[in-house]
Design goal:
It is a single chain. Helices cover 40% and strands 10% of the residues. It is built from seven helices and four strands; from the N terminus they run H-H-H-H-E-H-H-E-E-E-H. Strands 2-1-3-4 form a four-stranded mixed sheet, with helices on one face. It folds into two domains: 66 residues; 80 residues, 3-Layer(aba) Sandwich (Glutaredoxin), CATH 3.40.30.10. The protein starts with 23 loop residues before the first helix and ends with a helix. Strand 3 and strand 4 form a beta hairpin. Helix 1 crosses helix 3. It is an alpha+beta fold. The protein binds FE2/S2 (inorganic) cluster. The site of FE2/S2 (inorganic) cluster (FES) has 12 residues, from helix 5.
Length: 178
Amino acid sequence: MAEASAASCACSKPAIVPGGPLPEAVVTLIDQVVTRHNAEPSSLITILHEVQEAVGYLPEEVLEQVARRMEIPLADVHGVVSFYALFSMKPKGRHRIAACKGTACYVRGAPRVLERFESELGIKAGDTTADAEFSLDVVRCLGACGLGPVVMIDEDVHARLKPDRVPSVVKRYRSSKS
Ligand code: FES
């Protein structure tokens, strides 16, 4: 399984070493976010979303700190993170690929498009390439069902994508600097 290490990330997100202490900047960030929402358990989704936006993902150490700071069971935090697809406990790539496998896209060939992305990138859905360039996820609907199969890469919508176009699409993002 290819998995990027946040500790070696060249981006501006704080580096988190698995199993190690959280960087002070992350502890402070969590404290600020939780304080802003008065540590309200009903704001847990918003809090996790804001922390993920800042950190890039939600590793175990971050979930533990959120639970500690909010004085709620860690199981509650895990429950929310595992329920909502928008949360990830793994680092994401510089380019985020979301392949729709909703019904409309599925019947138009989404599984073959997804397989082509997996073989082209050498990873399975849910993973990130070793060079942290791409992460690949499956989503249930992107709200553009008439354009299926639909794949979003970063903010771009790729409509009616055919498997044989996947290599050139990947190549375009691989060489882009954004
Ligand atoms: S099912 Fe794919 S966009 Fe709706």
